[in-house]
């Protein structure tokens, strides 16, 4: 009886903490009663307690810090360092406990003032990599369950053992990857440790997921990759050694999921911001047409997406005349970027003006093309803009490249 009552009580905390912040704050006082269930209880109690504590920790920095002060991270660390989680014979129930533990740890090391170093010990990092080494291949090898043509008429379908195993592997791999997104943010020393132990190949492998059942791994893998690529050039060199890197980035930058497109653009902008040969690698892989297409279709409706795309283009053009000539002769960026100016959104317009300045400096043909596409009129729009920086750049470009331009097109 007490076992059932305890289970119901924990379920109530899971549901309450997953709703409004006001409700979550009301159960924060009960966390000392939930923490003992992380170890001294049945598997189901452990699982639900970790989910409840994770929900509460994710509500606010106050809740997060309170739960850490109560020592919840110690049993959670012991849960994820359980060697059986990295076994090919681990049960879906045990895997679910690991998934819940990683979810809770993620919420304990995210947000302003978080201290992810509390969880960055060798045992946790080694166990996390072992878990990913086992469960990413299982997740990628699984197939989606068959589609039900008419769900209203269909009888409840029992999932096959293979699907259950695949879902369990996807669950723990996804949450372990989300945990790494917070661990690798602005932490180059930790990125270096993880990359030395093989994390890069695991990330690019997870990004290859194409089945619906496995796609939850892609977003955290891509975010972690972006964090690492924001660091030293050595990390980018390692990433470029992965044969499947650009296949994964290509899938993400063309994904119907907006968040994946944004993350992929951020990762690409980090790559091309490094050495010139990094930008050349992106160009040679044929990813630029996808980036131009994003500008073409999102110029008027998604300024944030266009801004990220322009960062990729500007970081590429920054490498000098050769890259600017490629952009001019082999892509439609120049014409599409003028659409962004006509849309008039601040940050993306600033990036376009900076792009035009680099292009105009590269060779004389560009000024004729800009005029032909109505670009001078676009620039004139910004001479009286509220933003003084946009005024300054546009006036400078007009004065330098258009009012006294007497060259003929080549």
UniProtKB/TrEMBL annotation:
InterPro entries linked: ARM-like, ARM-type_fold, Armadillo
Superkingdom classification of source: Eukaryota
Gene3D superfamilies: Leucine-rich Repeat Variant (1.25.10.10)
Gene Ontology process terms (BP): protein transport
The keyword Protein transport is annotated on this UniProt entry: yes
Record keywords, A-Z: Protein transport, Transport
Family that this chain belongs to: Belongs to the importin alpha family.
PANTHER family: IMPORTIN ALPHA
Protein name according to UniProt: Importin subunit alpha
Source organism (scientific name): Sphaeroforma arctica JP610
Species classification: Eukaryota, Ichthyosporea, Ichthyophonida, Sphaeroforma
């Amino acid at each position: 009886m007490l076992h059932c009552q305890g289970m119901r009580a924990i379920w109530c905390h899971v549901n309450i903490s997953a709703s409004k912040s006001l409700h979550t704050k009301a159960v924060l006082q009960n966390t000392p009663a939930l923490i003992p269930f992380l170890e001294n209880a049945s598997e189901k109690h452990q699982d639900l307690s970790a989910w409840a504590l994770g929900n509460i920790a994710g509500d606010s920095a106050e809740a997060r810090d309170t739960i850490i002060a109560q020592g919840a991270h110690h049993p959670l660390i012991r849960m994820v360092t359980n060697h059986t989680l990295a076994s090919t014979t681990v049960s879906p129930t045990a895997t679910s406990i690991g998934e819940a533990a990683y979810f809770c740890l993620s919420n304990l090391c995210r947000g302003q003032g978080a201290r992810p170093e509390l969880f960055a010990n060798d045992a946790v990092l080694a166990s996390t990599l072992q878990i990913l080494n086992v469960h990413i291949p299982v997740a990628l090898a699984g197939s989606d369950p068959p589609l039900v043509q008419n769900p209203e008429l269909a009888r409840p379908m029992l999932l096959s053992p293979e699907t259950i195993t695949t879902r369990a592997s996807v669950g723990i791999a996804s949450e372990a990857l989300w945990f790494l997104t917070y661990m690798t943010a602005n932490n180059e020393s930790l990125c270096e440790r993880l990359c030395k132990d093989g994390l890069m190949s695991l990330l690019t492998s997870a990004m290859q997921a194409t089945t619906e059942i496995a796609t939850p791994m892609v977003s955290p893998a891509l975010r972690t990759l972006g964090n690492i690529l924001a660091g030293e050039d050595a990390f980018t060199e390692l990433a470029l050694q992965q044969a499947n890197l650009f296949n994964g980035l290509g899938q993400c930058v063309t994904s119907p999921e907006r968040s994946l497109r944004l993350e992929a653009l951020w990762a690409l902008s980090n790559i091309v911001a490094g050495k010139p040969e990094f930008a050349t690698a992106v160009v040679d892989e044929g990813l630029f047409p996808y980036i131009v297409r994003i500008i073409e279709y999102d110029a008027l409706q998604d300024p944030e997406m266009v801004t990220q795309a322009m960062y990729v283009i500007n970081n590429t053009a920054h490498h000098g005349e050769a890259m600017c000539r490629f952009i001019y002769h082999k892509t439609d960026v120049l014409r599409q970027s003028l659409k962004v100016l006509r849309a008039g959104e601040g940050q993306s317009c600033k990036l376009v003006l900076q792009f035009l300045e680099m292009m105009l400096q590269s060779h004389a043909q560009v000024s004729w093309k800009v005029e032909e596409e109505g670009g001078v009129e676009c620039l004139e729009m910004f001479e009286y803009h509220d933003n003084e920086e946009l005024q300054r750049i546009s006036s400078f470009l007009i004065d330098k490249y258009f009012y006294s331009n007497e060259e003929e097109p080549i």
